[in-house]
Amino acid sequence: MRQEIVNPEGADGPAPLQLFWALEDKEGEVAVQYDLDTGEERKIPTAKPHDWASIAWVPFRDPDLVNRINYEQNKLQNPTYVDLSPLPFIQIIPKAGELSRVTRRGYLEYFSYYQCSACDTTFKWKKEDDDIVPVCPNCGMTNTWACDIHGEVSPIHLENGENRCPHCEKTGIPRGCRKIRNLVQKDGVSQRRHYVAVIEDKIEIEIGDDRIIIRSL
Ligand SMILES: [Zn+2]
Ligand SMILES: [Zn+2]
Predict the structure, then answer these.
(1) Residues with beta carbon < 5 A to ion ligand 1?
(2) What separation in Å is there between the alpha carbon of 120 and the centre of ligand 1?
(3) Cα–ligand 2 centroid distance for 162 (angstroms)
(4) The model's pTM
(5) Residue 173 Cα, ligand 2 centroid: separation in angstroms?
(6) What is the mean pLDDT of residues 114-130?
(7) FRET partner for 105 with CA separation of 20 to 30 A, picked from 28, 138, 140, 165?
(8) Considering every ligand atom, which ligand is closest to the CA of 142?
(9) Span 24-65, pLDDT tens digits
(10) pLDDT attached to residue 14
(11) What would the DSSP string read from start to end of 160-199?
(12) In what order do the strands lie in the sheet with 203-207?
């Protein structure tokens, strides 16, 4: 099985796992991803999905197990943390040799957003040429700037982030403005996970954060 963790551009790390694998071989032996007593992660017994009689994705339901695993992962250089899950237990029992691919993908993305103090609308904003300061998409509110001498002004926004008073600029003694924060910057985080199993040329089963999709190929 490929333990594929794809981090698209701009993502900041793998999302915590919600499911762990249990593999059944042709002799009926079952291996699970973690030692349930110590929380240590184990290697996949055989990397060939064709050799498995079944695979199950087991949701984390036991907070103690989650703690044990995260404690062990914390010792690693590239930890993959785990989290409790509301997903159901899912077992895939293919006909002999038909399971051709099993992967998981997950990522975590940190982003910043603005909250408008006038109307409470939250929105994301990226600096673009035609829109150099954030503007509330609902009520048009912006941050405002004030010069200590000239009061509220429409400042000159410089490339380096400085906001200068246009009146002071004319006098030859440049002066920065104070920002009045009508739009409050906040930090958010989003995470997405997929677990994918492919039954050769027939169906693909994708388990997402809040849905399970079965596609015929
Ligand atoms: Zn607003
Ligand atoms: Zn001024």
Answers:
(1) 116, 118-119, 121, 136, 138-139, 141
(2) 6
(3) 14
(4) 0.60
(5) 9
(6) 85
(7) 28
(8) 1
(9) 988 888 999 999 999 999 987 776 788 888 989 999 999 999
(10) 66
(11) TS-EE-HHHHHHT---B-EEE-SEEEEEEEEEEEEEEEEE
(12) 122-123, 99-116, 183-199, 203-207, 212-216
Distance CA 159, CA 127 (A): 11
Distance CA 113, CA 189 (A): 10
182 C-alpha vs ligand 1 centroid, how far in Å? 9
Q: How far is the CA of 170 from the centre of ligand 2 (A)?
A: 9
Please tell me the predicted confidence (pLDDT) of residue 165: 95
Distance CA 33, CA 11 (A): 25
176 CA from centroid of ligand 1 (Å): 26
Ligand of minimum distance to the alpha carbon of 164: 2
The Cα–Cα gap between 10 and 142 comes to 26
Positive or negative CA dihedral for 102, 46, 35, 39? negative
Mean pLDDT estimate for the chain? 84
Ligand 1: distance of its center to the CA of 16 in Å? 34
**92, 99 Cβ separation under 8 angstroms:** yes
Token representation of residue 9: 């551009």
Show me where the domains of the chain are located. Answer: 19-110+190-216, 144-176
Q: Which helix (H) or strand (E) holds 63?
A: helix 63-73
CA 174 to ligand 2 centroid distance, Å: 8
- pLDDT tens profile 76-95: 888 888 889 888 898 988 88
Pair 63, 69: CB distance under 8 Å: no
Q: Ligand 1 center to residue 113 CA distance, Å?
A: 13
